[in-house]
Write a structure and sequence with these properties.
Radius of gyration: 35 Å
Strand order of the largest sheet: 4-3-2-1-5
Shape: elongated
Order of helices and strands: HHHHHHHHHEEEEHEEHEEHH
Length: 355
């Protein structure tokens, strides 16, 4: 065959074979997904079409390019082969990560569907996220190493590096001590169940929800939509509050400063009425009592419960707003008083002035 026609024939045949093979694989996955709707694995595997196409096309071209007698390809056969090898290695790594991600996500989805404990679901989600990132990093490092080994110069360099691996390992360990510490802290968090994605935490005086955990840092979304990024080693070396540990239910307090004449019994009845009309109150319990007295006021504490920190915040605000409004309307004398007039004279001072 004419060399000018051989090139488009090989290219066209490789592309056509890749398209047909990809279509057939996608068809099989769609049928499997229709027969097994209880698992999302088959539908998730359809996301691997792009790396699969590249792998097939690179493999077909790598096996056929040497038969092309076209001078530009024949004269640069080594370069063309290396480019195809790099594309095959990169697409193969992409395909491995995509397949692993689909399998892991499918397993997590089935576990989350069949588990009613939110704490266990968050724990598995955290572990799955970190495992997938470890897999991606390992596959990426291996792929880069394989790409470098396709160059003859790097093969010789690799041999010399292996001879001095001990010294390089010591130097790298000292230089990357902080990074390695965060890396091992990430594994400790993932499998030690210290903190999970979705947990409500208080760190460095900030209240927020854990939004993302990587092998090196952890992101906390605060109530005002700010993101606090902290090294994961912070959570293994310093104390922090995890409000979701052992269950998301919480108990909170609302404090009121009132006059000594405040009707505590009526306030208790009003708090009961407020809570029964508040949807966020979980009904587990409540209380109202005088916890402290001062020469000018008393401190009344209302205790309320809720199923999670967000609802607890809403319940506390509702009790605070509605009870203060009720006191101001029905018993304004029960609010704290600030005396601005002169103090009344004692009997001895009045007798002295009368003389």
């Amino acid at each position: 065959m004419n060399s000018a026609l051989l090139l488009p024939t090989v290219l066209g045949g490789s592309i056509l074979t890749t398209v047909v093979a990809g279509w057939a694989a996608d068809l099989l996955l769609r049928r499997a997904d229709a027969r097994h709707p209880e698992t999302p694995l088959w539908n998730l595997l359809r996301r691997c079409r792009s790396p699969l196409h590249i792998v097939l096309l690179a493999a077909l071209l790598k096996g056929a390019y040497r038969h092309i007698a076209w001078p530009p390809v024949h004269d640069n056969a080594a370069t063309v082969g290396r480019i195809l090898s790099l594309a095959l290695i990169g697409a193969g790594a992409w395909l491995i990560v995509a397949v692993a991600s689909a399998v892991v996500e499918s397993g997590y989805a089935r576990y989350a569907t069949g588990t009613r404990d939110p704490a266990r679901v968050r724990r598995v989600r955290t572990q799955v996220t970190l495992i997938m990132r470890v897999v991606a990093v390992v596959v990426g490092v291996v792929a880069v190493a394989a790409m470098l080994l396709t160059f003859p110069g790097f093969r010789a360099l690799g041999t010399s590096l292996l001879a001095s691996a001990g010294i390089i390992g010591i130097v790298a360990g000292v230089a990357a001590q902080s990074a390695l510490g965060n890396l091992f802290a990430g594994f400790q968090i993932a499998f030690g169940d210290m903190v999970r994605i979705g947990d409500t935490v208080v760190v460095a005086g900030e209240w927020g929800v854990v939004e993302d955990i990587t092998l090196t840092f952890l992101a906390v979304r605060t109530w005002d939509e700010r993101r606090i990024t902290m090294p994961v080693s912070y959570f293994t070396t310093r104390p922090f509050e995890n409000w979701s540990r052992g269950g998301a239910e919480m108990t909170g307090s609302v404090f009121f400063h009132c006059d000594h004449t405040a009707p505590v019994d009526l306030m208790r009845d009003k708090v009961r009425e407020i809570l029964h009309s508040c949807r966020e109150w979980d009904g587990r319990g409540w209380d109202l009592a005088v916890t402290e007295t001062t020469p000018s006021t008393i401190v009344v504490r209302a205790v309320v419960t809720a199923k999670d920190p967000d609802d607890l915040w809403t319940v506390r605000c509702a009790v605070r707003e509605q009870l203060i409004a009720w006191i101001a309307e029905k018993h304004p004398d029960a609010l704290p008083r600030v005396l601005l007039g002169p103090a009344p004279a004692s009997r001895d001072a009045a007798a002295e002035r009368s003389r």
